[in-house]
Write a structure and sequence with these properties.
The chain is mainly beta. It has a domain of 65 residues: SH3 type barrels, CATH 2.30.30.
């Protein structure tokens, strides 16, 4: 299985990185670099925090963890699992 990711660098040249897994357990990540996502919460979807995926990590149980930088002036970031996230377009449908 191969996962393609595009990485933006500060000087605006895009490089393509291909990650190849040796095992068959890992699934492709649902979100990739620069995907717009919302952090799910028990409040109204219109209040969910929205941000951009800036990092991917696969844990020992083959689950993807995403580093998200939220759209706050302070640049707050957090690492969340796929279950804790919703696509920004999905959020628009929930409102």
């Amino acid at each position: 299985m191969k996962v393609n990711a595009v990485v933006l660098q500060s000087y605006k040249i895009m490089n393509t990185i291909t990650i190849q897994f040796a095992g068959f357990c890992a699934q492709s990540p649902k979100y990739t670099f620069n995907s717009r996502v919302a952090m799910k919460s028990n409040c109204k979807p219109s209040k969910w925090a929205i941000g951009r995926v800036t990092g991917l990590r696969i844990d020992d149980d083959n689950n993807w963890n995403y580093t998200i930088v939220f759209d706050y002036p302070q640049g707050y970031s957090d690492e969340l699992t796929e279950d804790e996230l919703a696509d920004e377009n999905e959020l628009l449908c929930l409102n």
